[in-house]
């Protein structure tokens, strides 16, 4: 396990899981939000986003946290492992509400005091989108997919994670 994706609904706990997995494995963690947004949540130009993403994917080992459906297969074909957080919609809504209400947004910045309507709609619409994404991921040869549906699944995945092995060619 050297190139890992963590995907799932907004509010599912991707960033928290990713930080814990990175600490456990030693893989360098990149949040896709950090590549897609500038300070103040200003969206970057598409060419900048593409360049940043390609730079992240070029590494020998990495852990990428974030959904971004438009680049899912591009990332999956470079990855060897995916952790897909598939928690119930109500839980994701609740976690997103409290995360933003308490100012605990995972990547810094200055989130709004209340979750945006767009974020709530993304979470509400995620279950069918997530199933579609999972079906897409299953078409990628050699990709190991872990679907995590509970706290017990998350803990089991973290318990099973081992430090990344350095490449013998480094």
Folded structure, characterized:
A hairpin with a 3-residue loop joins strand 3 and strand 4. This protein has 170 residues and is an alpha/beta fold. The chain starts with a strand and ends in a 10-residue tail after the last helix. The mean pLDDT is 87. 47% of the residues lie in helices and 16% in strands. The protein has helices at residues 14-25, 32-36, 46-57, 72-78, 89-101, 117-137, 151-160; strands at residues 3-8, 29-31, 37-38, 42-43, 62-65, 81-85, 144-148. Helix 5 crosses helix 6. The protein has a 5-stranded parallel sheet with strand order 2-5-1-6-7, sandwiched between helices. Strands 3-4 form a two-stranded antiparallel ribbon. The protein contains 7 helices and 7 strands.
Question: Short summary of the structure?
Answer:
The protein is of the alpha/beta class and 170 residues long. The protein has helices at residues 14-25, 32-36, 46-57, 72-78, 89-101, 117-137, 151-160, and strands spanning 3-8, 29-31, 37-38, 42-43, 62-65, 81-85, 144-148.
What is Rg?
16 Å
Strand content: 15-25%
Shape: globular
Order of helices and strands: EHEHEEHEHEHHEH
Major beta sheet summary: 5 strands, parallel
User: Could you give the count of β-strands?
Assistant: 7
**Stretches where pLDDT falls below 50 for ≥5 residues?**
none
Could you estimate the helical fraction of the residues in percent?
Answer: 40-55%
Could you state the oligomeric state of the chains shown?
single chain
Number of helices: 7
Overall mean confidence score, pLDDT: 87
Distance between the termini: 16 Å
């Amino acid at each position: 396990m050297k190139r890992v994706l963590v995907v799932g609904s907004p509010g599912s706990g991707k960033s928290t899981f990713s930080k814990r997995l990175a600490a456990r494995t030693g893989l360098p963690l990149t949040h896709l939000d950090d590549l897609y947004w500038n300070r103040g949540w200003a969206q970057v130009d598409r060419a900048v986003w593409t360049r940043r993403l390609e730079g992240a994917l070029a590494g020998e080992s990495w852990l990428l946290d974030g959904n971004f459906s438009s680049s899912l297969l591009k990332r999956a074909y470079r990855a060897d492992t995916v952790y897909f957080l598939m928690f119930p919609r109500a839980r994701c809504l609740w976690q997103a509400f409290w995360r933003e209400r308490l100012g605990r947004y995972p990547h810094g910045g200055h989130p709004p005091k209340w979750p945006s309507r767009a974020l709530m709609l993304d979470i509400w619409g995620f279950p069918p989108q997530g199933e579609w994404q999972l079906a897409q991921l299953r078409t990628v040869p050699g990709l190991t997919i872990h679907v995590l549906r509970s706290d017990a699944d998350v803990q089991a995945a973290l318990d099973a994670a081992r430090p990344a092995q350095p490449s013998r060619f480094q």
